[in-house]
Amino acid sequence: MTKPNNATHQASFRDPSGYMFHDGDTLRRVINPIYFPQYRKLTDSGFYQTLIKKGLLIGHEETSSSEEKIVITPEHIPFITNPYEWSFEQFKHAALLTLQIQKYALSKGFILKDASAYNVTFHKGKAVFIDTLSFDFYEENTPWRAYKQFITHFFGPLVLAKYHGTEILKMLQTHIDGLPVQLIASLLPGKTKLSSTLYTNIHLLAKLESKHSEDYKAETKVASLSKKAQNNILTNLFNFIKKLKLNEASEWGDYYEKTNYDDAALEAKKQLIREWVPALNTKTLIDMGGNDGTFARTVLDQVEDVIVTDIDSNAVGYNYHQTQQNGETNMLPFVCDVLQPAPGIGFNNTERSSLIERLQEYAPDMTMALALIHHITLSGNVPFLKSAEFFAKFCNYLIIEFPKREDSWVESLLVRKREFINHFDFYNESDFEAGYLEYFTMEKKEAISGTNRILYLLKVKQ
Amino acid sequence: MIVQGIVAFAAGVLLFSKNAMYKVKAFFGLLKEEDDTYDSIDIDEEDTETNDETE
Question: CB within 10 Å: which end of chain A, N or C, has fewer?
Fold first, then answer.
């Protein structure tokens, strides 16, 4: 979906240093004269270049330069994920990256002027910093002015997730400026006051904040903090976050042991995917409800860009862990509940795009929805026509798996309907086809041998 | 009962051996770190050719 020419990016209005705009399909960044001294110094000193070469900062090239503005063109990122869509490990890596960059900046006479979690996204298998204009000059003995933002955007949510599970990370969807420190402190168990790191960085901060909450005159003293002390704080936070583990985390792996088909059936399904996906010259693929990426991985070497989403944060975490272990650069996992896709949030509801908007912009060549429709239909009570409408919004081709009523998973979902089981008589092959063929044409249909499931290849009607 | 016993015994052995191996490995420093990128807060500049002149 092409944006109107020269349209300012909706998330790019808070920073007076510059803004992003759409130049046709290309996203560019304008730098205002107020930021010229910083930009020149960051460029000439090789600061940008070092971070870009290390893969920590998104690369850019200078497109034009005049007295009124400098235009740079950042490397294209196919799909932007937001913090509330990350697994715990992804969130941890984004936090660690921010601290690494701040410490490096400090050693070179710069600082990160903000530490928003939205300055990081995942690209080529790794966390990458995407706000090129987030740096400023360091003034000797000044504390890190983005420290509190780091706590509310990264440290607080991570520590809360440790004690309350990954669902807490979704709170960032309703708190675009991070979770309030007092809320974080109140949700943490009392024993966390015994930890020197948690006490100083959260509980004490919350106490100070409540003490100064009625300070309308803003007559705050300018605090002083040596560079060495700031480095110690950064290192302490880094080491603490690195060791953070989820209390709820189960052992990773063996997700497919819970499924109801044997190895031969699993292989038959993989074989169909291996045949159908490359045959259509697929360059971009999204597997919705793709669990730990098992099926998407069967075609990973043949597709340029693969996205796998799942509702289960632990499955997404396991998938991300595999991408790190295998050094996969074309696999992007993130958390997504198909029944409740991420909405547009922030000012005007447009600062962070909704999932559907981002999917429409991404416009994947191929979408896969394997072992998902029975959950959408029977757990979410979404009629076939409505789910077909959802997929048709962004799909080109759709591979969808339909488990028949005889499938053990479907039987179990139907049993849970108890006296209303008859209300779901529509869950059958012909009604499924009738609903989906309103929006799609059928290209292929194959029974998966050894199962009560059918695999369809559908093409959206233009 | 016998099958249950065997399964419980096997699970016990597996659990104990995993734990014991971890401790032995940790004692000899054989545990490998998984995240190389986030091993240290310090960015290694050795393999970049840039010349940072700031400071």
Answer: C
